[in-house]
Please model this.
Amino acid sequence: MIPLDTLGRPLHDLRISVTDRCNFRCIYCMPKEIFGKDYQFLPRAEILTFEEIERLVRIFAGLGLQKVRLTGGEPLVRRDLERLVAMLAALGEFDLTLTTNGSLLAQKAKALADAGLKRVTVSLDSLDDATFRRMNDVDFPVAKVLAGIEAAQAVGLAPIKVNMVTKRGVNEASILPMARYFKGTGITLRFIEFMDVGSTNGWRLDDVVPAREIVATIDRELPLEPVQPGYRGEVASRYRYKDGSGEVGVIASVTQPFCADCTRARLSADGSLYTCLFATTGRDLRPLLRGGASDDEITQAIAEVWTERTDRYSELRSSDTAGLRKIEMSFIGG
Ligand SMILES: C[S@@+](CC[C@H](N)C(=O)[O-])C[C@H]1O[C@@H](n2cnc3c(N)ncnc32)[C@H](O)[C@@H]1O
Ligand code: SF4
Model:
């Protein structure tokens, strides 16, 4: 049975948050004032085990799943993550990838590739060291992330994507240097509009650099032309350099919402299923997993959540919705 939601969208992608913890405190995601020393992260016992995650992915595969992305928090701070990668890779034919801040990638790339990971997306918000250190807010240097990207390239975790969140007045000046640096490397740079995820990042519409402006900034120096989407539900609008030296993407969740084609579900580290990044509530699957439910019962529960899905938050976003108590991105999985 392949369930469709109320807007006819299939469940193709699952993003799994393997931990709510992170070694960065990006100002737009885990601001230090909130995620400080006293912040209560999930206790270990509440976090899904690798075996529980594998079981869920197997069940999702029966519902038409095509792609799994491991995320967080920072997925590489979860110990032995390569063991989970190997377990999921053994399940079969879906696309298996990971989003990371790159800080531990130089150490981990080979083990991840050996375990069966196909490719990675690395987040990097600037090549300017001072700007990057200010954005990650833990004084982490650019050079180590670049070393992680090189390590991933060396072991064939390709095609690599690099994600840059663009925030007005913070890193707009990094747009062109990033485009120049990654042009012609085979790595696709993608710009993400600063989003009003969670309730703690102090989002204001004025802080968003619209995708249109990002594309125009690059196009003035490095001419671009649009590319047709590769598949339904592709989040990035794609542009290719007219000289044939590669592509960039823009993820314009704020100014050009793509809810109509959204085929993504998200699983939090403690086993709740969310059908929108901007959700306020999820369906807790852990009591089923730990309470002896059969695979059929869990399939039924997931299918029910999906067939009832009505989400299209980004299309409805307004000054009223920005104030809703939404789940933090580091928890729900970016
Ligand atoms: C939540 S992170 C989790 C994975 C990993 N820690 C990382 O940074 O790649 C996933 C992605 O979400 C992006 N992100 C976090 N907060 C955001 C926000 N408020 N607006 C737009 N993108 C955001 C990050 O830049 C990153 O590319
Ligand atoms: S964006 Fe990623 S690296 Fe930055 S704080 Fe959020 S989870 Fe951590």
Notes: The longest helix spans residues 142-154. The first strand starts at residue 13 and ends at 17. The CA atoms of residues 8 and 125 lie 35 Å apart. The chain has a mean pLDDT of 91.
